[in-house]
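ugh ok so i messed up the first submission bc i forgot one of the chains. this is the corrected input, ALL of the components this time, i swear. 1788 residues overall. if the numbers dont match what u have on ur side tell me asap before i send this to the collaborators (the ones from the other lab, u know who)
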Amino acid sequence: MAEIAKILVLNGPNLNMLGVRQPEIYGSDTLADIEQRCHAHAKKYEFDIDFRQSNIEGELVTWIQEERTRCQGVIINAAAFTHTSVAILDALSLLDVPVIEVHLSNIFAREEFRHHSYVSPVAAGVICGFGWRGYTLALDALKDILDSD
Amino acid sequence: MAEIAKILVLNGPNLNMLGVRQPEIYGSDTLADIEQRCHAHAKKYEFDIDFRQSNIEGELVTWIQEERTRCQGVIINAAAFTHTSVAILDALSLLDVPVIEVHLSNIFAREEFRHHSYVSPVAAGVICGFGWRGYTLALDALKDILDSD
Amino acid sequence: MAEIAKILVLNGPNLNMLGVRQPEIYGSDTLADIEQRCHAHAKKYEFDIDFRQSNIEGELVTWIQEERTRCQGVIINAAAFTHTSVAILDALSLLDVPVIEVHLSNIFAREEFRHHSYVSPVAAGVICGFGWRGYTLALDALKDILDSD
Amino acid sequence: MAEIAKILVLNGPNLNMLGVRQPEIYGSDTLADIEQRCHAHAKKYEFDIDFRQSNIEGELVTWIQEERTRCQGVIINAAAFTHTSVAILDALSLLDVPVIEVHLSNIFAREEFRHHSYVSPVAAGVICGFGWRGYTLALDALKDILDSD
Amino acid sequence: MAEIAKILVLNGPNLNMLGVRQPEIYGSDTLADIEQRCHAHAKKYEFDIDFRQSNIEGELVTWIQEERTRCQGVIINAAAFTHTSVAILDALSLLDVPVIEVHLSNIFAREEFRHHSYVSPVAAGVICGFGWRGYTLALDALKDILDSD
Amino acid sequence: MAEIAKILVLNGPNLNMLGVRQPEIYGSDTLADIEQRCHAHAKKYEFDIDFRQSNIEGELVTWIQEERTRCQGVIINAAAFTHTSVAILDALSLLDVPVIEVHLSNIFAREEFRHHSYVSPVAAGVICGFGWRGYTLALDALKDILDSD
Amino acid sequence: MAEIAKILVLNGPNLNMLGVRQPEIYGSDTLADIEQRCHAHAKKYEFDIDFRQSNIEGELVTWIQEERTRCQGVIINAAAFTHTSVAILDALSLLDVPVIEVHLSNIFAREEFRHHSYVSPVAAGVICGFGWRGYTLALDALKDILDSD
Amino acid sequence: MAEIAKILVLNGPNLNMLGVRQPEIYGSDTLADIEQRCHAHAKKYEFDIDFRQSNIEGELVTWIQEERTRCQGVIINAAAFTHTSVAILDALSLLDVPVIEVHLSNIFAREEFRHHSYVSPVAAGVICGFGWRGYTLALDALKDILDSD
Amino acid sequence: MAEIAKILVLNGPNLNMLGVRQPEIYGSDTLADIEQRCHAHAKKYEFDIDFRQSNIEGELVTWIQEERTRCQGVIINAAAFTHTSVAILDALSLLDVPVIEVHLSNIFAREEFRHHSYVSPVAAGVICGFGWRGYTLALDALKDILDSD
Amino acid sequence: MAEIAKILVLNGPNLNMLGVRQPEIYGSDTLADIEQRCHAHAKKYEFDIDFRQSNIEGELVTWIQEERTRCQGVIINAAAFTHTSVAILDALSLLDVPVIEVHLSNIFAREEFRHHSYVSPVAAGVICGFGWRGYTLALDALKDILDSD
Amino acid sequence: MAEIAKILVLNGPNLNMLGVRQPEIYGSDTLADIEQRCHAHAKKYEFDIDFRQSNIEGELVTWIQEERTRCQGVIINAAAFTHTSVAILDALSLLDVPVIEVHLSNIFAREEFRHHSYVSPVAAGVICGFGWRGYTLALDALKDILDSD
Amino acid sequence: MAEIAKILVLNGPNLNMLGVRQPEIYGSDTLADIEQRCHAHAKKYEFDIDFRQSNIEGELVTWIQEERTRCQGVIINAAAFTHTSVAILDALSLLDVPVIEVHLSNIFAREEFRHHSYVSPVAAGVICGFGWRGYTLALDALKDILDSD
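and heres the new structure output, hopefully the right one now
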């Protein structure tokens, strides 16, 4: 795989508020900082990062549909939609490219209703609890998966 | 009922991707094909079909609200929202016209969470498992209900 | 498929009492009326309707077994047995022909225990809530399935 | 109500074995003894007792259907079917006459699955734990209900 | 058993309001009327009725304790405490005399939480759904149990 | 409604300890302070406040019964009994006047077992989380309901 | 135990269809083949095999009742009724002779609702997953139990 | 707190249909009427009301985010989203200002699934069942909370 | 801690019947005997025992409230109220002194509903299954806790 | 299959105590007796029995791993580990040879938590309730399975 | 009982780490300190303490088996195995001597999964929440039980 | 942190069988290969990898205890123990160093009982579904966490 691969990085509701509040919990990085880090990290893999955020479930669904034949991999932090959206599950099921689920915090150490994810069954793998680092770890993992195809 | 009746046909998230993928499961028809079939089938009943699709729950809610006094019947395949949307249930509860729930596949033969529908309690009837034919069967049923009023 | 196809229409317990009581809920049609309508409707499809009713679970099981190689499709309204009979599920599993599940009323708008059906997982499709019309819709659907084989 | 009222007394599976085994638990009376007692007790009320037993759910359903316009009241000890038969519930729902549910033993002091009854919701009342006396108490209660109509 | 037997008839919370409200549901009899009927009915059995009502769980518990060696039988309509009181269950467990549970209405046709009774496991039998008649039926049943000892 | 309306304000177990302990959580007001505030607030509405507290479920039940025809509205903070008392539910069901449920703290942000209330289904409305202010808001709401009758 | 012992072998619904369909799953043996094998195997034990099948729950119940004093042991493959029939449980409870539960397939590796058996609590032992061999193993086990009495 | 405080009043899906249908249940006030009442009521507190409605979950999330530093309090009637939206819960968790949850009807006297609220755990208090009055009661409560800070 | 410490020993419903019945299960000691043993045992610790019993939940609540600043420790055997009383839980939560929960029998070897205790979460420790000895063990434990403060 | 087949017979915790206690329940045979019987029974099949017992879950796991290519079949009575060990399930999943699950007693007639087995889903078949005979029946079954391969 | 009684004191996983970490929660005592205290306390009762700890479930099982006829009583703090080990339950069931369950902390005030104990049903009694003192209280209780035999 | 950090890498039951069977699912790498990769990957971080595997729960517990002050981080793939071991949870709770949970496969796409992990609540983060790459990603993550301390 010598060509540049497009990687869609999707972020769910409220992630646009990162760094703004409770930095002691979520870190002081803003979502823009994370996007920056993804771009930087992606360079060595010749990945082209398409980094987006939406508070609207349907917009995320549409993006997944639109990019399904244009990208080589998806990293998704669906945030609150992780636990409630069958629509995103169905959209991700349409994909032939690998999907990696990322969460900034360890969702298994939070409220009971955050332990269930509609995304997990269709994800190649799950990474949670490592803050922004989860995104770059996901890029590493994606590189590996794409190379091994 | 001699006049032309307007029938609102609503389609939920990811149905715009029909025919594009897994045709062995969902058939090779696209949503446009189904719309076409509905228009063709509606002719004999003098039904005016208003066929729409959205990935956004709120848009479907708004359409139901807007058309509530302008249509004589609703056929809804809420797809993933079937299982998660109380808002669509509430919007449909506003209607005085009959609502028919349609699903392309047999949702009772799929994952456990797809066995529950928020739409069913306010639907006149449910049709599932017959692919695109479910829509024309629903038109037949609607014709019958409207004639018997 | 030019030949006449035999369609087995099975009715479960208490359906023989249709029209006799609470016509405001179940309609004034008797089961004989519904049978009549099925025969009339079947003519255009060259279907030969074998219409039966039993209050005995085992009799329904035996009928399914006996007709399994003699019919081209089954329409079943298992009534109360829908929710309690694993034996009917097992008998229907023996069939190679399509099975369509029909209910006169919308079982999803009734008591909780009527929301579960042992028949659904082995049915090609489900139609409920349309009264006697559910049977003729099922014939339409069956015609379509048989033609597409 | 001066005329003779016909009372249907229905007994479910295994009640024909009463008195044959474990008399220390169920008493030494046979079902014939209980029938005898019902006839004797019914005399003072000018009740005509139609006393039946079946091990077959569908037979009980049919009897309820057939006698629905011929009897003025029903006493039913559905035994094991109490906990499993939706068909009997549906048949009893067809009746306009009062239904009284009887159990020889106190079902609430037995296994968990015997605590739920499909019959109770459509019964005027429930009597359990008094052995054969439950039947005559039910006749007393039925007399009272019929007189107060 | 030639002597006069003392029968304790216990009534739980809100039963003192009988006849005052919703007579179409609970009947127009007051609790005093029911007591009167019990006294009248008890005469033929030479039962001495001790008829009491309390809104206080602990008072009912104390009465059961105090009368445990002074009465030959207990009829209890624990009303709301039926569903919540382990203390009454424990008090009734102290008794060597038969206990009969009575309910005016058919509790199995009401809210889910009224389907469970803490009293039933220690009752000889249960009678419910027959209004005030349940008390006199219970006296009949008690007479029978005491005679057969 | 020009006359003075009597409003019964009922307080359940342990509310007599308000202000004595953990003022940082429940506020430093005692129940007497709250009663005082209710009297002050009631003046403008010409409400006559009858303010009571009991640790005994049965006493609350009796008060509701006794005052049912003497008061025009009830405000109840059943405290712990909220979650365990069917008897209070039944007593409140006897009332023809509006009932308002009040809680000092937000019970939905506390232990799971405090999320269920037996009072809510028979209350006109629920107010929780506003400390003593909940009582005066309830008076405001009651005024409004009574005026709109 | 020198005499010939009669062994009742009961088969539930749909077992009469064995060998007819899906032989790759259930084997190519018909129920007649299994009966034949039982007779052959029984010879060495001087067992007299009474081998029956019914699709009707009540018929199985009646057979158990009728043979209760005529047979020395029961082998039962209740098939679908295993999971739904309290009536068969009650009938088997009448027996003083040992009961052995047999299933052709390993029911614990199938759908969740097949993991519960109403028969097991009254069976001496359970054998499942060995196809027709389960019947002869059951005969071996029965021989052993009868000899050790 | 002498300055004018901005209060964000958020309304979820279908609330824009208020007054249009079933006025006997929800009252004849439209949402515009309620807004009007809030403005009128807010005057005495020098509150500046920002009153909005949306059928789109994500739009409500975005509004909460945008106004989080511009308003001094939030009143939210999330309607159907109350029971399904983790995203709104997460957005509200970002706020440092008090949030009050309002419902027009008593949600605890409706369907089971409406008894759970994702909003309640992050609300200062909850007011439900008082129709439009709930909004002005919430303003009163908010005034009190802001003054006591 | 040289002074005499007052220890409140509370006993719930039916414990006043100890020794009167089923001595083979609960022992032949009466509650008076246990009180006697507590007084005897308390001497070496200079504990002043205030030993009480009530069948009324609210009385126990009131005693806990009244003695909260007058005692140095509480031993409570809430008996049946253990499993049903949130009011006692709330009253005990008011205390600053250690609470020890005692049960005569091993509640974990009894009915399922006795496995849950509302008292345990606010108790320093739990002792069950040792009969009257549980009370003196609790005194030992209390001595130890008070000395270590 | 003319060669000698090695059969691994694994026994879980506490089975080494067989015969030592409660012989009226578990029989008077020790595990050594059962081993002896297996060796005797195996002779006719030319099976080489490797009979082991361990109280340590991990040791059983290791044995399964080590013998996986050295044995032709496994008989396992995992005793208590049956209900708690996912590790043994995973180890057994590694095997290509048939596994037969054996239990001395009928686990379905014991405590609820013994009704679930982690072993069953990967077993070819299950035999329970026949005491030591279960082992020799398992050898018979294994012989049959190996011969039919 | 004049002879020296051997008491087996068993400690489950991680108890060997006591005192090493979080002394503010579990106290600063090491397990050796607790053993020391047990020896000191046992002197007055002429108890011979055999104090052991293991992180391996099977080792605890084996110790219970080996000492079953050599000791007169068992005190067990199974720690984490309390909630997961059926094997220890089965081993303890083999004992004829009394078993006392001890926990350092109040397990009922911790995570939900720590509220269930497999040990409790076979323990004579349970002591929890008193730190190391629980062991000496258990010795006191054991002395009492042994003396009363 | 310039010094070499010791990283404990723990592997649970059956992971020693990696690569031996079903390489199409788990990959063809053996555990030795993964250890090799960890050593190679660790070099750049100056990590000293201590790589171990055990089938015995207690051995893993002991290793965690022993290394708790000797290592700077733990990577654990507890395999089957993930879902059943409270003892490992308790041992990990003793650690002050970061713990990372790794799984080769996506456990959320497997059986229901594998969706719950006792390890997750005490892990800094979770990585699953990436095969052996999960270990090196965990090393990357650990490097990051240690550097940021």
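quick check: Chain C has one domain: 5-148. that seems consistent at least. Chains C and J do not touch (no CB pair under 8 Å).
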